[in-house]
TrEMBL record:
Its EC number is 3.1.22.1. It comes from Menidia menidia (Atlantic silverside). It is an enzyme of class 3 (hydrolase). This is deoxyribonuclease II. Belongs to the DNase II family. It comes from the Eukaryota.
Length: 352
């Protein structure tokens, strides 16, 4: 049963008292200031009627209110992602015993691809006070800390998304529990001894071991530093179903329009066999009038078909047959700013 998005708990009210401190670990906006959350949508190189650079991106956070074309490029260490990750790269934070970091990607940089891990990509960085969880869709990213910020050339071709949320320490412990279901490929991480008692699962996964799970899927409420509610859906490889049709749409009680990268001959068609439907998006049009096909978009997200449902999720999994057997998740929100931003870019979808 998914907690109703409209309800507020005492936890949320206590979090509302928190403010983002400039010296603390957090998501960072385009000019390096602390921010509660942000989303980027990187444009693909090949669009309808034109060819771009492959490193331009749109930016969104609560203060911006709608998609804005960034003045930075995603392969620059400037901009929201660079500013956020530079908290790890700069000042040798990754060598510190006062913070935890973990980089995971089923297609990590430099290393060979290995089967058996969840189809998930992201970054954790936090201390005993707070930090961030960034989930994204970019293979071979981010680079190892000692190499500094590097964006892979392979990440230029397709569209990509990234969601960064700032959390207090207690919430990040919940995030780690969620990650256990995904079984990510952690290719570089550090759990200092001061954190070991709270994070035995993360230490275990950093060593490549698979933790024991209580079930094959889990849903968890997460509250950002400023009290924004997100709901995390995670499934292991033992939950063999399309996460959008078989779980999220039914649990959220909303018909979903789904954008995901589908390879020809392996894609799942739009599905209306259950009470709530999952329909494939085929074309995106951003506010800059850039239009592109889903075949050139490696991002994974869904948005409610009906405006009154106002739910948006960003995640890990494509609507492909092989990914029914993969671990992966979704991070969902009822924030109207996020919903309007994603719903407005849907240009064409395939109904059942």
């Amino acid at each position: 049963m998914v907690p109703h998005f409209g309800s507020w708990s005492s936890v949320a009210f206590t979090l509302l008292c928190c403010t983002v401190c400039g010296t603390e670990i957090s998501c960072r906006n385009e000019v390096g200031e602390p921010v509660d959350w942000f989303i980027i949508y990187k444009l693909p190189r090949y669009r309808i009627g034109e060819v771009g650079s492959g490193v331009e991106y749109m930016y969104l956070d609560s203060s911006v209110g709608s998609w804005q074309m960034s003045t930075f490029m995603v392969n620059s260490s400037q901009g929201a992602i660079g500013n956020t990750l530079n908290q790890l790269y700069m000042g040798k934070t990754y060598m510190s015993n006062s913070s935890v970091y973990a980089l995971y990607n089923d297609g990590p940089p430099v290393l060979k691809y290995v089967r058996g891990y969840g189809h998930t990509k992201g970054v954790l960085l936090f201390d005993h006070s707070q930090g961030f969880w960034m989930s994204h869709s970019i293979p071979h990213f981010p680079s190892f800390p000692e190499r500094g910020y590097q964006y892979p050339s392979s990440g230029k071709l397709n569209g990509q998304t990234a969601l960064c949320v700032t959390y207090q320490y207690a919430q990040l412990l919940r995030v780690v529990t969620q990650l256990a279901y995904l079984y990510p490929r952690f290719y570089n991480c550090s759990v200092p001894s001061a954190f070991m008692a709270d994070l035995p699962q993360l230490a275990q996964m950093c060593e490549g071991s698979k933790p024991t799970l209580a079930s094959n899927r889990k849903v968890e409420q997460l509250f950002s530093l400023q009290g924004e509610k997100f709901v995390s859906f995670v499934k292991s490889e033992h939950f063999v179903d399309d996460i959008y049709t078989g779980w999220a749409a039914q649990a959220l009680n909303a018909d979903l329009l789904v954008e995901s990268w589908q390879t020809q001959g392996h894609e799942l068609p739009s599905n209306c066999s259950l009470p709530k439907h999952a329909m494939n998006i085929r074309r995106i049009q951003l506010p800059t009038s850039v239009r592109f096909s889903s075949h050139h978009d490696h991002s994974k997200w869904c948005v409610a078909w009906l405006h009154e449902d106002q739910v948006t999720c960003l995640g890990d999994l494509n609507r492909e047959r092989a990914q029914l057997w993969r671990g992966g998740g979704l991070i969902c929100s009822h924030n109207p700013v996020i919903y309007k931003a994603f719903r407005r870019v849907v240009d064409l979808y395939i109904s059942c």
